Amino acid sequence: MTTSNNDDILKKGEKVAWFATIATILLAVFKALVGFFSGSILLIADAVHSAVDTVAIFSSWFGLKISQKKYTEKFEKYVLDKLGKTNNSLWETERLKELKAMLDFTKTNNANWNNKTEYLPLAEFKKRKVLPKPSKV
Known about the structure:
- With 137 residues, this protein is an all-alpha fold.
- The protein contains 6 helices and no strands.
- The radius of gyration is 27 Å and the shape is flat.
């Protein structure tokens, strides 16, 4: 997923969360009014419940809002400054280049690397009994 695509998804999520917050507030007010004028304590209690739901929905909107800030770049710049490096990215430092090479299995020089690194074949895993049947204990 590209950064711009991710940003678009976060923006859409932010809009949905904002709309849901407004809709939940309106629903809570409507329930409270109907409950008050009809004398229904149950409907008033449900209005309070909807109002509390608004806090959770608003929190999701707030989380989506702050997640769009570019903290990663600022963190990278801070670490690179502390290390005295002039690189543009942490991934350009020697140690992280080596880590990236270790994690990138598609560019390995070893033939059949997948067979050599497989811990437990899927077919064996599916047949493996984890716990005995209760009647066998």
